[in-house]
Design a protein that fits this description.
Layout: E1 29-31, E2 34-36, E3 42-43, H1 61-65, H2 69-76, H3 80-100, H4 115-122, E4 138-139, E5 142-143, H5 153-162
Antiparallel strand pairs: 1-2, 2-3, 4-5
């Protein structure tokens, strides 16, 4: 059986701009579009039309479940409150089709979620926060209660989608016993999160890997 390798690279580039000021106690008083200081006023231009181009509450979901570029782009500019009604049927069909490509049906996952329930949850691109529970994307009884910097969200998402009841369904299994894997490894992107050590202060970036 010909295996299809799914290698998904998910890159989040954060560009953060900082404006610094000296510690000479100069007053900074914003008024509408002008910031008045002891020096010359700085005029900030807010004219023009601004549009949303992307969103990533849950990294990778749009990439995996959107069947084409048009759907992916439309998802990125749709507000979360409208995403379930608009995209859940498409995401459900995509889930069915991806499993059917390997001759199997979607299997209720390790959270006990069937395909309809899972795609309903994932089609709303928001990251839940549970203020009274440990922050984790997936960990024991605390599931989708937030996201730690060390959480491997891509592997977790792939496990929830492809892993079946035990979380390891698409892990290179030999289904017919002929010595050749019949299912590819889809429960991991193959990128290890070992050694990730974010700092304790904003922006929490770790030392670059050598």
């Amino acid at each position: 059986m010909k295996l299809i390798n799914f290698k998904t690279l998910f890159i989040l580039i954060a560009m953060i701009g900082f404006n610094s000021c000296s510690d000479d106690d100069d007053a900074i008083i914003p008024t509408d579009d002008v910031i008045i200081t002891d020096d010359d006023p700085i005029v900030i231009d807010f004219s023009g039309t601004f549009i949303q181009e992307d969103q990533m509450g849950r990294p990778g979901i749009n990439t995996v479940l959107s069947p084409d570029a048009a759907t992916e782009n439309a998802f990125n500019v749709t507000i979360p409150s409208e995403q379930i009604a608009t995209f859940q049927p498409t995401f459900l069909q995509r889930a069915i089709d991806l499993h059917a490509a390997f001759g199997v049906e979607y299997e209720t996952n390790i959270l006990g979620l069937d395909a309809v329930t899972l795609t309903t949850i994932l089609s709303a691109d928001v990251l839940q926060v549970a203020p009274d529970a440990p922050t984790t994307y997936f960990g024991g009884g605390n599931i989708l209660t937030g996201r730690n910097l060390t959480d491997d969200v891509i592997d977790i998402s792939l496990i929830l989608f492809f892993g079946g009841e035990n979380g390891d369904r698409f892990n290179g299994q030999d289904l017919d016993g002929d010595g050749t894997p019949d299912l590819p490894i889809l429960v991991s992107d193959g990128v290890s999160a070992a050694g990730e050590t974010p700092t304790a202060t904003f922006p929490y970036l770790e030392v670059p890997h050598s």
